[in-house]
């Protein structure tokens, strides 16, 4: 399970300084990498570690290549983005280490005769695939997953064990859905009548682009009439809730426990810290970055970083600040009162002089 | 798949103005509905859209019926609550469009011989039904769901794929449980002994009324000794956590990511915005409305709307306000000091005059 | 299903006053317990209830034993920690009431021939166990659970229905995993390249100690290179998210909806209230207690109780306090201005006098 440096260059690019016939067997951090491993320098602070590294080869930028002297004796791969290069190289090593996937449908799986499953796909034990569903080439649908009626799964997409992908939903190519993800459950839509709730059928779909990853136990609801849309390259972590009719722009990433209420429209290239909450029916521009535990209650038409959580303190200190916060209007009144009094005093003074 | 207007009136009520023999094939928004579709006016702001609508028929109130002139030429259905009427009509269309459900037990399902499953129920692939469980008439238990020993599922209840409904729990009629919902896992109960936690067996049940809907990946824990109770008509969205021994009053609705700690007692007709958090052992009155991302830390004996989240700002502004908030006690001390000084100054002034 | 008091003492310790041959059939609260039941006094406020109890036997401390007079006529079990004693006694009753578990592999389960499953283990319907996995003595793996390639499950561990335990992860003895728990999904790790995210393979494991309980629909991600570690006796409630490479110290407990970002290192004997959020890459000392709904954004080197959530109010009051909070910097400026003015006035005064 070794890769020649020359093969790495041919597949992933980069300029090689050193012996292309050298074989590397894995990737490791700078201070740990041994003489058959490759490492990477993506943070200038670690330059000293890089210089002292025993790695067989180092992935680094042109600039760092110039700064690291001959004390580092191994090979070098120069590339504009060493971290991305590392990620791709690690993917390759992971592919080599992965157990082989045998195409075919496990005998315990229940696949409707009208479903179209590519011959190269691998359907695991206890999977259910309903009528008219489509599973593309080289897909992996792991144990216990469910694909609803008329749903469509693009080529090379991988459902880990126990994913639910409901009727008529669509996902593109190279997607990854983790265990417990539920795509296409009903949105939360009701009409109120005398206090009781009358269900509004949710007849839209979830439509997911290419290269999307969705984490464990994350839910994405189907649209009410129109669709919920997740564009290419979006990455959702675990335990996330996406309400019906949301639209999430390409390459946006959300950390764990984020909640997005229905019909929110989120731009491209955004990031959301863990447990950020987004109100429904608002619009968020491209390149917005929301800090963890922040509630976004209105639209954000401008890119930027937005934050709003209560800074923690010792419980005793918090008790005090929270008590004052509850009475902030009184404090403001006192300040106003004081301003008036002082103004009067200053005026008197002037008159006196 | 068309419905005559007269049939709609016979089933759902309302006064019809227009041709009862007209057939409609679906429901659409005012600006989109075509001449075979029905639409509804539930918001006075959309009156102009209604007037210009091409819909075959319009659901509207008596008052709006009077305000919309002959420029709208289609049929009209007058009803006090057009939105609720729309919901019921949409349900009917959805029923017509739904694939037929064939009663019976899929051969891959594992049903204990002592379980009683109604002949009209539909048990999907890879379902497990344990001993002494009961599944009522016209239930649908979809692929991979689990029904524990002695649990009871009322008529017309629908478990989507991969629901867990644990031993001895009970749900009434017409319930809907979405994929990944876990009803009746152990509550979080431990005795502490020298720092370590000793498990307290959770032997209560979850008892759920009629017409309850529970979202994807939501958890409702069983009671410790007594039961966790969810009354009729409650609607829980996705990713919600309901702790042991909670009691949720009828027709209360909770949006996604809400958490309710153990033994909270919540009234009827309440609503909770997304990610609202409710402390344990508190009581919340009927008709309480909690805003999203709000932590309710003590009982609410009065109806009303309650809110408490940190208003977001640009990260830089938040940094400033958070820093002051941390020092709010100092700010209050300065204000007090100032008040004293000013009072002294004012007193001196009086003495002078 | 009765236990003699003498048998209880022999198994769980404590000093018995009364008839050891007496048989008790269950445990109940002080005011409810009947003459064949046992009860416990763990809170001095309930002393009057204890005195008046009809319980067959009472678990209590030495001190309370002295305070409760002959008006309570039943037997007494004296122990330093009555609540922990109650928990253990309740466990015993629960064991007696539990339906028998028959060892063996259900015919619908799919177990790879290379997996080693102890003969005393009970593998339920529709379980999948992948190659080279190991399931220890007396384990219970309930319906629809998944155990990945090379994973290892220690003796007496119980997976409830529909648990996912992914490849190469390890759990010790006497663990309890609730339905929907996902252990060992990929951590959320990506390199950014021109806005798009490149996946970093997650090749670490989740390594879990003995006596760990993990709640329904909780996710614990596998490490990127190193492992995610959960030490002995940790208790995680439902709907929790633990990011990759976290380390959670022994006997720490987390309530529902907590989120812990990647690489956080949390001490022993900590507690986290519901929906507490922990930033990544921080270190939290032993014996830290975090209040519900609190965001911990930096390391906590000292034990103690920490809090930080916005205190709720009526919506109208919150609107006011939030508006002031947004302008807290202005308020501080006004205060400073006022201080200067007042100082000037006071100085003038002095000069005058």
From TrEMBL, chains A, B, C:
Keywords, ordered alphabetically: Acyltransferase, Coiled coil, Lipid A biosynthesis, Lipid biosynthesis, Lipid metabolism, Repeat, Transferase
Q: Which InterPro entries match?
A: LpxD, Trimer_LpxA-like_sf, UDP_GlcNAc_AcTrfase_non-rep
Q: So, what pathway does this thing act in? A: Bacterial outer membrane biogenesis; LPS lipid A biosynthesis
Ranges in a coiled coil: 321-348
Query: Do the record's keywords include Translocase?
Result: no
In its UniProt record, which GO terms are filed under biological process?
lipid A biosynthetic process
Repeat as a keyword?
A: yes
PANTHER family listed in its UniProt record? UDP-3-O-ACYLGLUCOSAMINE N-ACYLTRANSFERASE, UDP-3-O-ACYLGLUCOSAMINE N-ACYLTRANSFERASE 1, MITOCHONDRIAL-RELATED
Q: What is said about its interaction partners and assembly? A: Homotrimer.
Protein name in the entry: UDP-3-O-acylglucosamine N-acyltransferase
What gene name does this entry carry?
lpxD
